[in-house]
Design goal:
Layout (H helix, E strand, L loop, with lengths): L11 E5 L2 H4 L6 H7 L13 H15 L3 E5 L2 H4 L8 H16 L3 E7 L5 H4 L9 H16 L5 E6 L1 H10 L10 H25 L4 E13 L4 H21 L7 E11 L26 H10 L6 E6 L6 H20 L4 E7 L18 E3 L6 E3 L1 H12 L10
Parallel strand pairs: 1-2, 1-8, 2-3, 3-4, 4-5, 5-6, 6-7, 7-8
Antiparallel strand pairs: 9-10
Helix pairs in contact: 7-9, 8-9, 11-12, 12-13
Bound molecules: beta-D-glucopyranose.
Keywords: Glycosidase, Hydrolase, Transferase
Protein name: Glycosyl transferase
InterPro entries: GH, Glyco_hydro_1, Glyco_hydro_1_AS
Length: 400
C-alpha cells in the first residue's frame, strides 16, 4: 500500500494545528460560546497566527518538518450562506503557496470543531441541508485551493464533536440528547463520505481521510464485567466509526493521547487515569504502549495510517521530550511489525487555545507568550528536529 507520490519522503514528519485554536477568530459558534462565558477564558486574538503566519512558517522551516497539518476556517471562507470571502481564500492560498516553496507538504483539515454562525443557528450538522452546505464549501475550496494540496482530513474527531457537544454538553451547542447524538453520528458519516467524493471528483489523485480520536481503553480489573465493558467502549468509541467510513478513507488518521479504564459500574464513562500513573497537566495518563495496541487493531483495514495528532499538555518540557521520543519509538516498532504508519504530526506546533480549558494547557513545541505574542522553540522542538534529520530517508523510523 502506498501513500502519495513517488517523490514524497518515506515518512511525513509534521506538526499540527487548527484554525480556531491559533488564528484569532471572531466568526464562529465557538466565539459565541466563549462570549457566553462557557469556557475558562475567551480565545480572543489567540496566537494571532492569521497575521503572524509568515514568521510562524519560518519556524516550521526551522523545525525541518516536511509536512504541516492545519485547518481552514469555514466561517472565514463562507461567512454568509453562499457568500465566499475572496480575501480569506486568497490568504489560505498564499499560505499553501509558501508551504510549497518551503517544501512542506500540507495536510488540510476541512472541519476542526467550529461552524459558521449561520450553520450553527440552523442546527449545525443536524440540519437536513447541512451536507449540501458543507459540500458547497468543500467544492469551492477544492476549486480555489485544490491544486496546492494533495492530502485532506474532512472532519476532525467526529465522535468528540458528538460527545462534547451533544452528550456532555461542554462544547457548543451544549445539548444533552442521546437520540440526537446518534443521528449526528450518522450525519457526520454522510458528510464525510460526500466530502470524500467531492474532493476526488475535483482532484482524483487527492488522498482523503479523517482524524479519529482513539483512546487506549483497557479494563480496570481483569474481571469479566470490566473486560466486557472495555470491549463495548472500544467498539463504540474507537472501532465503530472507522468501520462506518471504511470505504471512504485513503488513509486512517489517528489522534492519540492517552489510556482510559473501563469499569462495569461506570458504563460508557471510562475512568480517566489511575492515581499512580504519570499524567499530563490535564490529568491524561502518558501511555505510549497504548498507541501500539491501537495500531495493531487498525492493521485489519490494510490502509496507510497517519498519526494526525499526538502530544501532551505540560509545563515541564523534559516530560514533553520523553513523551515525544517514547511515542516515536512505538511507531518505529509498529512499522517493524508490518503496520504501515506513514506520518506523525505532533500536537501542537504552537501553544494554543485548548477549547473549554482556555490557554493554561501548554501543548506547543513552540512556546507562545500571549502578552507579547513572541514565540520560542522549546528544547523538545530541537530534539524533534534532530530526530527528523536523522530519519530523512528512513522507513521504519528510529529514535537516535
Ligand atoms: C483536538 C485538538 C485538541 C487536542 C488536545 C484533539 O482532540 O483535535 O483540537 O487541542 O486534542 O486536547
Amino acid at each position: 500500500m502506498s501513500l502519495g507520490k513517488a517523490t514524497w519522503p518515506p515518512f511525513l514528519w509534521g506538526v499540527a494545528t487548527s484554525s480556531h485554536q491559533i488564528e484569532g477568530n471572531q466568526h464562529n459558534d465557538w466565539t459565541r460560546w466563549e462570549q457566553a462565558g462557557r469556557v475558562a477564558e475567551p480565545s480572543g486574538r489567540s496566537c494571532d497566527h492569521w497575521n503572524l503566519w509568515p514568521s510562524d512558517f519560518s519556524m516550521l522551516h526551522q523545525l525541518r518538518v516536511n509536512s504541516y497539518r492545519f485547518s481552514l476556517e469555514w466561517s472565514r471562507i463562507e461567512p454568509r450562506p453562499g457568500e465566499f470571502d475572496a480575501k480569506a481564500l486568497g490568504q489560505y492560498r498564499a499560505m499553501l503557496q509558501r508551504l510549497r516553496e518551503l517544501k512542506i507538504i500540507p495536510l488540510v483539515t476541512l472541519h476542526h470543531f467550529t461552524l459558521p454562525l449561520w450553520v450553527s443557528d440552523q442546527g449545525g450538522f443536524l440540519h437536513p441541508k447541512a451536507t449540501t452546505w458543507f459540500i458547497r464549501y468543500v467544492t469551492r475550496v477544492m476549486h480555489e485551493l485544490g491544486d496546492l494540496a494533495d492530502l485532506y482530513v474532512t472532519i476532525n474527531e467526529p465522535l468528540v464533536l458528538v460527545v462534547m457537544g451533544y452528550l456532555i454538553a461542554q462544547w457548543p451547542p451544549g445539548q444533552h440528547g442521546f437520540a440526537r447524538a446518534l443521528r449526528l453520528i450518522n450525519r457526520l458519516r454522510d458528510v464525510h463520505q460526500a466530502a470524500y467524493e467531492t474532493i476526488k471528483a475535483v482532484k482524483s489523485n487527492a488522498l482523503v481521510g479523517l482524524a479519529h480520536h482513539l483512546i487506549a481503553f483497557e479494563p480496570w480489573t481483569n474481571s469479566l464485567p470490566d473486560r466486557g465493558m472495555a470491549h463495548v467502549v472500544r467498539y463504540l468509541m474507537n472501532d465503530r466509526f472507522v468501520r462506518m467510513v471504511r470505504n471512504h478513507q485513503d488513509f486512517i488518521g489517528v489522534n492519540y493521547y492517552t489510556r482510559q479504564y473501563a469499569h462495569w459500574s461506570q458504563g460508557l464513562h471510562p475512568i480517566q487515569n489511575r492515581a499512580q500513573s504519570p499524567l499530563s497537566d490535564l490529568g491524561w495518563e502518558i501511555y505510549p504502549q497504548g498507541l501500539l495496541a491501537l495500531l495493531r487493531r487498525l492493521k485489519v483495514w490494510q490502509k496507510p495510517i497517519l498519526i494526525t495528532e499526538n502530544g501532551i499538555a505540560t509545563r515541564d518540557d523534559s516530560l514533553r521530550t520523553t513523551f515525544l521520543q517514547e511515542h516515536l519509538k512505538v511507531i518505529g516498532d509498529a512499522q517493524r511489525q508490518g503496520i504501515d504508519v506513514r506520518g506523525y504530526y505532533h500536537w501542537s506546533f504552537l501553544d494554543n487555545f485548548e477549547w473549554a480549558e482556555g490557554y493554561a494547557p501548554r501543548f506547543g513545541l513552540v512556546e507562545v507568550d500571549y502578552q507579547t505574542l513572541t514565540r520560542h522553540l522549546r528544547p523538545t522542538a530541537l530534539r524533534y528536529r534532530a530526530i527528523i534529520e536523522a530519519n530523512r530517508q528512513r522507513y521504519p523510523i528510529s529514535v537516535p
